[in-house]
């Protein structure tokens, strides 16, 4: 798959693309990333890509013309039968979630537009942008961090990128976990700062361990993201043992442990 990133700061991506486990996806070409600076398509000595907004107001707006020329070059370079989707990272879009990441990871890629300043000329958005994506209800100084978040999430789902092929199957929000949050994880030493590893994880009994992990996922999800429990229940993904575990969470919270501090095991 191929992602073309339109950004005024391509240097921000260089350490990102060469670091961490996901670098394998970029180095091997599983996820091809090309960086494009719209300033290269601007006119004049100053290569200006922004101007003051009509109607007044603070800040500057990215101009449609250099963005349009940059996108035209990208489309010529991609030489695809149908134009690739154009994604703008914006508060107007839906929040990025696991389902969207899975969809993009199975796609042929997209053009990612990293906005800056007060935004992008609406005429370019109306003419070319096919998707808008948000990371949440907050504002960043530009779309680069959001683009990296999408690229990283997509890259780690590609075959051979993670050390353990099944690792991503146990991520939070993954349908393999019925959309629940992940459970706690522990490693050596067995006791750290007076806190021991839960005994069940040292038992070697795979059935007990899996049940403990499932119960922990249910507990954490019920406490932190109860709407995910509702969704799993509505989809018929919870069995009788799951419901019993959830009742234990409520009973524990109603007792001496206090809200949000109940323990299943």
Q: What is the CATH topology assignment of the largest domain?
A: Alpha/beta knot
* Count of folded domains: 2
Spans of at least 5 consecutive residues whose pLDDT stays below 50 are 257-262
Q: Which structural class fits the helix and strand makeup? A: alpha/beta
List the strand order in the largest sheet. 2-1-6-5-7
CATH uppermost class of the largest domain: Alpha Beta
Please count the beta strands (DSSP E, at least 2 residues each): 9
Distance between the termini: 44 Å
Q: Could you report the average pLDDT, rounded to the nearest whole number?
A: 91
CATH architecture of the largest domain: 3-Layer(aba) Sandwich
Count of helical stretches: 9
| Percent range for β-strand residues | 5-15%
- What is the name of the CATH superfamily of the largest domain? SPOUT methyltransferase, trefoil knot domain
Sheet with the most strands? 5 strands, parallel
Binding site for S-adenosyl-L-methionine: 115, 135-140
Function: Specifically methylates guanosine-37 in various tRNAs.
Domain tRNA methyltransferase TRMD/TRM10-type: 1-230
EC number: 2.1.1.228
Folded structure, characterized:
The chain is of the alpha/beta class and 265 residues long. It folds into 2 domains: 2-155, Alpha/beta knot (3-Layer(aba) Sandwich); 172-254, tRNA(m1g37)methyltransferase, domain 2 (Trp Operon Repressor, Chain A). The chain is 36% helix and 11% strand. It contains 9 helices and 9 strands. Strand 8 and strand 9 (195-196) form a beta hairpin. The protein is elongated and about 70 Å long. The two termini are 44 Å apart. Homodimer. It catalyses: guanosine(37) in tRNA + S-adenosyl-L-methionine = N(1)-methylguanosine(37) in tRNA + S-adenosyl-L-homocysteine + H(+).
